[in-house]
Amino acid sequence: MEALAGSRFYFPCVKPPTINHHQIRRTQRLMITRASIAVEQKNPETKVALVRIGTRGSPLALAQAYETKSKLIAAHEELAEDGAIEIVIIKTTGDKILSQPLADIGGKGLFTKEIDEALLNNEIDIAVHSMKDVPTYLPDKIFLPCNLEREDVRDAFISTTAASLADLPDGSVVGTASLRRKSQLLHRYPSLKVQDNFRGNVQTRLRKLNEGIVQATLLALAGLKRLDMTENVSSVLSIDDMLPAVAQGAIGIACLNDDDKMVNYLASLNHEETRLAISCERAFLETLDGSCRTPIAGYACRDENGDCFFRGLVASTDGKKVIETSRRGPYAFDDMVSMGRDAGKELLSKAGPGFFDPR
């Protein structure tokens, strides 16, 4: 494991994603809008599903659930039968309370708690999550053995008036619910303003943008790709300009640790390179004890030599102080978890007492 000095980093491992979602998306476009009705009006004569997939009800969450369903069907013949897989929509605390910043209503776990409870109560068999919403701790008996292949990790800049952040006039308002984005944005463009309770699903945020509530917003490119909404993107931010959230672009699928059938199903879908990268990043986040109150970013990937390259960052919410570090080492689980933890300890030491206290 090797610590790397310097405040700017070149990411040789950032390349266009290889995932082809074309066929999956055709199914999503047909089915997502009908999902809530289909679940609520389930025919009592329909046979019991072999796999019940728990998910939030947003268009993006449903796109991820249907992607999971398609992959399960492709890998297991018996799941291709009509009714073999059921999508179960679960409303989470984070979906119910939209008027307050996430940090003020509990931070991590707001989009997973109710889904975890459904899993523990045997109301669903597997749970599909955006990995960046998943706390670094999991409830007892819940196991997360599977990450699907990661999408593009970068953030997208969207505006009706400017082609890039650099083109925004001084004083322009950028809407984001992410302290990570806010701090990095203000660090590079201190003349801009941030509306930091810019919450809602992708469609809601784009509507607010079109209504002129803000002049621009930043969204995960992965979500826009999964929704086939990249036509809204004005430009894509480089990793060096906007380091992603830990686990951004990755889908995680959980089940009960004693449910061998589901564990086997999920093992067939797991993308190991993604799982290892996410493990490195989450070890970094866990070491920092990160929450929605602290701007934290981290990204691990395989470089041109096959090694792991990790970069991590913590910042003050006003963007005036940004502390960064990086590591390079073998692309193997133990080494990568060690890298993440070591990088987290370094930033804790550099930040000093009080840096992570609520403000």
TrEMBL record:
Start and end residues of each Porphobilinogen deaminase N-terminal domain: 51-263
This enzyme's EC code(s): 2.5.1.61
Assigned keywords, A-Z: Chlorophyll biosynthesis, Chloroplast, Plastid, Porphyrin biosynthesis, Transferase
GO cellular component: chloroplast; cytoplasm
Entry cofactors: dipyrromethane
Family matches, as Gene3D superfamilies: Periplasmic binding protein-like II, Porphobilinogen deaminase, C-terminal domain
Any Pfam family matching the protein: Porphobil_deamC
Main EC class the enzyme belongs to: transferase
GO biological process, one term: chlorophyll biosynthetic process
One function term, GO molecular function aspect: hydroxymethylbilane synthase activity
CDD domains cross-referenced by the UniProt entry: PBP2_PBGD_1
Domain Porphobilinogen deaminase C-terminal as annotated: residue spans: 277-348
Family: Belongs to the HMBS family.
PANTHER family assigned: PORPHOBILINOGEN DEAMINASE
Function recorded in the entry: Tetrapolymerization of the monopyrrole PBG into the hydroxymethylbilane pre-uroporphyrinogen in several discrete steps.
Protein name: Porphobilinogen deaminase, chloroplastic
Taxonomic source organism: Spinacia oleracea (Spinach)
